[in-house]
Design goal:
The protein is an alpha/beta fold. It has helices at 21-33, 46-54, 65-69, 84-91, 109-120, 163-175, 185-210, 217-223, 226-232, 239-248, 250-272, 276-295, and strands at 13-17, 38-42, 61-62, 74-77, 100-103, 125-126, 128-131, 152-156, 179-182. The chain is globular and about 70 Å long.
C-alpha cells in the first residue's frame, strides 16, 4: 500500500486514547501511512506506554490525558466504551472547540446518547466511528495494520457536525486503508447486533452447550476439530468487554435473540415432524443468506 503524501493528510495531529488491539492498529496505520501526521498516544498503564515505545509507534507518549489532547485536531477514543464518560470529562478543559472527537466503539446509539451529547452540549464536535475489524486476541501486542486493510468503517453523525469535518474524517479512515460508510446510529446497532454481536453470543452458546449434559471431557477434546474451532473462535474474546457490549446494545440484541429462538423452534418442529425436505430448506436458506451478505449476491 503506498504511503500517503503529506498534502493528503486529513489531520495534522491525532491523539489515540487507549492503545489496545484496535487503537494500537490505528496508531500503527497512522505511523506507516500518514508520516506527516503528528501521532500522540495516551495510555493509563505505564506498561502499555513502554510497549508502544519498544514498538517505536511514536515518540509522543502520554500518561497525562490533558497534555495528549491539547491542540490535537482529531481525538480517537479507543478504550472500552464504559470509560468514555470519565475520559471526556477529564479532557474537556484542554479540548479545543476546533478539534473533532471520534471513537472506535462497536455500538453507536448509546455513545451518541452519552458521550456525543455531553460534548455537543459543551460546543465540541463528535462523530461516531466503528471500524469493522477485530480479533479474539486483545492488547497492543497483537495490533497490526493488516487488521484494518480493506475493512469498512461505519460513521454516524447524529449531532450534525459540519460536512467539512465529516469528509475529513472519511478521508482519514480511507487514508489508513479502510472504506467509509455513513449510517444512522440505530441502523448501525441493529446491523452489528446481527452480524457481530449475536455471532459472538451464539459462539459462546456453542461452546457452553458442548460442555453440558455430562459427556466426558476427554471425548470432547479428542473429537473437537475445525468446525468446533472455527465456530467458537470469537467466544475467546474478553468476557468483560463483551458483557459491556451486550448491555450497551441490549435492545437490538434482545430483539435479534428472539428471532433466533423463533427460528430454532421452527427447526425443532421440522425435526419432530420428520420433515427432511423442510430441514434441508432451512439449512439452504442459511447458506444462501451467508453468501448474499458475504459476496453481495442477490
Amino acid at each position: 500500500m503506498p504511503v500517503t503524501q503529506p498534502d493528503e493528510t486529513p489531520f495534522r495531529s491525532v491523539a489515540v486514547i487507549g492503545p489496545g488491539l484496535l487503537g494500537g492498529s490505528v496508531a500503527l496505520a497512522i505511523r506507516d501511512l500518514l508520516p506527516s501526521c503528528e501521532l500522540r498516544l495516551w495510555a493509563r498503564r505505564e506498561s502499555s506506554l513502554e510497549l508502544a515505545r519498544e514498538l517505536q509507534i511514536t515518540p509522543k507518549l502520554y500518561s497525562d490525558l490533558g497534555a495528549a489532547v491539547s491542540g490535537a485536531e482529531l481525538i480517537i477514543l479507543a478504550t472500552p466504551i464504559g470509560a468514555f464518560e470519565d475520559l471526556t470529562r477529564r479532557m474537556l478543559p484542554q479540548l479545543s472547540p476546533q478539534s473533532l472527537v471520534t471513537d472506535l466503539g462497536s455500538v453507536k446509539a448509546y455513545v451518541h446518547r452519552t458521550t456525543g451529547a455531553f460534548l455537543a452540549e459543551r460546543g465540541r464536535d463528535f462523530i461516531g466511528s466503528h471500524p469493522m475489524a477485530g480479533s479474539e486476541k486483545q492488547g497492543l501486542e497483537h495490533a497490526s495494520t493488516a487488521l484494518l486493510a480493506g475493512a469498512t468503517c461505519a460513521l454516524c453523525n447524529d449531532h450534525q457536525v459540519s460536512e467539512e469535518k465529516m469528509q475529513r474524517l472519511e478521508r482519514f479512515w480511507q487514508a489508513i486503508g479502510m472504506k467509509s460508510y455513513r449510517m444512522e446510529p440505530i441502523n448501525h446497532d441493529r446491523s452489528v447486533a446481527r452480524i457481530s454481536h449475536i455471532p459472538h453470543v451464539l459462539a459462546a452458546l456453542c461452546a457452553r452447550t458442548a460442555d453440558m449434559g455430562g459427556v466426558p471431557k476427554e471425548d470432547l477434546r479428542r473429537l473437537a476439530a475445525g468446525g468446533f474451532r472455527d465456530t467458537t473462535r470469537v467466544s475467546s474474546g474478553p468476557a468483560h468487554m463483551w458483557s459491556d457490549i451486550l448491555w450497551e446494545n441490549d435492545v437490538a440484541i434482545r430483539d435479534t435473540l428472539n428471532y433466533c429462538i423463533e427460528d430454532l423452534h421452527k427447526l425443532i418442529e421440522l425435526l419432530e415432524q420428520g420433515d427432511r425436505a423442510g430441514t434441508e430448506q432451512w439449512l439452504a436458506q442459511g447458506k444462501a443468506s451467508r453468501e448474499c451478505i458475504r459476496k453481495g449476491k442477490r
